[in-house]
Amino acid sequence: MVEKSFLLRGVDTVQVVGREQAVRIYELLASAGTPLAPEQEKVLRFYAAGLDAYRERRWGEALKLFEESLALWPGDGPSRTMASRCETYQLAPPPEEWAGVFEATHK
User: Residue 70 maps to which CATH number?
Assistant: First the structure.
């Protein structure tokens, strides 16, 4: 299994164009057993908590957590993407039946 060989970060669940089932997206961080810098560990904790809040439609809380990640690691693309989505969803929330899955509209 990949999870035994590498350290992965769950980034998002996405419904891609042309697919009926959502796909979980992961980021490869390091080989298994490779220590991460303490700042990166913090970023990953903030991101995971932000992702949980995002999936529970707590946009303001999620945004703050993603911003905490970005304060520690300004180049973190996943945190930047999720922060932007939170800002969008604060203004125009997804439908009530939304299951935390981002629907990509183009490839």
Answer: 1.25.40
